[in-house]
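Database export, one record per block. Field names are fixed; values are copied verbatim from the stored entry.
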Amino acid sequence: MNSQANAGRGPAVVAASMLALGIGSSLGFFPGYFVAAVRDDLGISRAQVGLLVSLHFGCTGLGSIIGARITEKIGTRAAVIVDQLMVAVAAWAAALLDSYAALVGAAVFAGFGYALANAATNEAVAAAVPETRRTLALSAKTSGVPMIALISAVLVPWASDRWSWNLILMIAGTVAAANVLISSAIIPDIRAARHRTRDGASILPRGFWWFAVSAFFLVGSSQPLFSWAVPYLDEGLGTSKPVAGAIAGAAAGLGAVCMSLTALRADYLGRTRRVPLIVGLCSILTAANLVVMSGLTLGLVVATIGLLIGFVAQLAAIGIMHAAVVDRAPHAVARATGVTMTGYYMGALATPVSFGALVDWLGTYSWAWLVMALGSASAAACFARASQVGDVVP
């Protein structure tokens, strides 16, 4: 499909990519939202629940570079379809086998599949949307992740009080399988980067690895906002699971809206100002983690404010980050995405399980949130260094 045809289908490609990303990430969020049900049913600890989240996103990180190469070979459309089928198989297998080992296997399998969706949707959207709307388009695409978090936060805790976690996974698997039809019809078939070195590898700028390091700290310090907000509000502050889910869902929804508004500002400022804007958002995220922590002493309202600010800052930073990656490597989008997402999902691997382990070990959420604040400050410092990375060089 040529670039002119892609551009004409831009809004549809963005919408289909958003849906694919949301579904592709779903198995990484569900454990944090039906945590009580799965712990009661299988007799597992908080750390073991956190491990499911860590494994899912950690395997996405481990598979990101090879997932980018596969995407370049088989094309963006096929890569998205494969991911959706992997989610469907993983969800149904875990539901039917009904064991913690099956949940671990599903997290690993679906996590590797999600690496394909990340690279493929970035490539597809970059080809379908002009640079003047790049941040908005990539942020809208990425908003599929907080939107599935919003839907999950509102529905999954409620559903887990009435149905089994197995049925919840079956529904998710069925939705993923059905989305194959939408992806087949809308996602363009784009293959391979245009500029390569003599050995066939895509060209990336010198020092591009700073984006991977920065992404590690950004996501590592903010993933618990998604994975542990509901248990924190429930166990730490004494709210009910439905109320906790509603608060987390509202925070994710506000973050998704502000993600697009911030993207418009980033497009107006232009490519040279995008990374400095991320630095500022990481600084805000640092403060938000501290505010969430202070909710243990200052109450639910303060914790809710911290969650709202944290979701907004994190999602806005991630949306702009995708545009910055394309800015720095416009002729090797899939490969640049793979490198960045390796660090991104290594952060998602490290903190959900360590956050849960810290709470189990110390009996309080305070120290876990403090560690997240230190991670956000590190993200700001690393992105400041990444802002010096230039365009593609031979």
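Remark 1: The chain has one domain: 3-189+200-386.
Remark 2: The radius of gyration is 19 Å.
End of record.
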